[in-house]
Amino acid sequence: MTSSSPTHSDSSGSSKHDSNQDSWEIVEGLRGVPASMQEPDRQEGFLLKRRKWPMKGWHKRYFVLEKGILKYAKRGPDMKKGKLHGCIDVGLSVMSIKKKAMCIDLDTENNIYHLKVKSPELFEEWVSKMRHHRVFRQNEIAMYPHERHLFNPHASSSPLSVIPSEK
């Protein structure tokens, strides 16, 4: 016996999708044939990085994005001294953004980095730079696959995809 009235899932499916305006957007990577690209400009500044245990919450960290590699430290001077807290190859990461919340997630094989930007202008600037750096890095890996290992956070013995700083 069939019912002529629509089911709950049929009638509510589209409205739920339409009302979810602040969903995560996965940022596309390199498509097609790699081509030589100009190296993108360096981007640096403070972002908020979410931590879990033992100090839960959002912590201010200084980030530098250069040649498709995102490095971070507690402060700018620490970065100059080589006291890195971490290093992420954005070309090998899955990048998702949430515009309304101004969040950027970078998913490496071993870890997910949750970043937050304080102003809409800075958010757009960081997202734009990260897109360019990702494609640049992916292009570099596609054109010179043997050089991929010059920076490969997944080959590191650390579970956090961090390159140890030189002392």
Automatic annotation (TrEMBL):
Q: Where is the PH domain?
A: 40-135
Q: What is this protein identified as?
A: PH domain-containing protein
Q: Where is the composition biased (Low complexity)?
A: 1-14
Give the matching Gene3D superfamilies.
Pleckstrin-homology domain (PH domain)/Phosphotyrosine-binding domain (PTB)
User: Residue ranges of region Disordered?
Assistant: 1-38
The UniProt similarity line reads: Belongs to the OSBP family.
UniProt-listed SMART domains: PH (SM00233)
GO terms, biological process: lipid transport
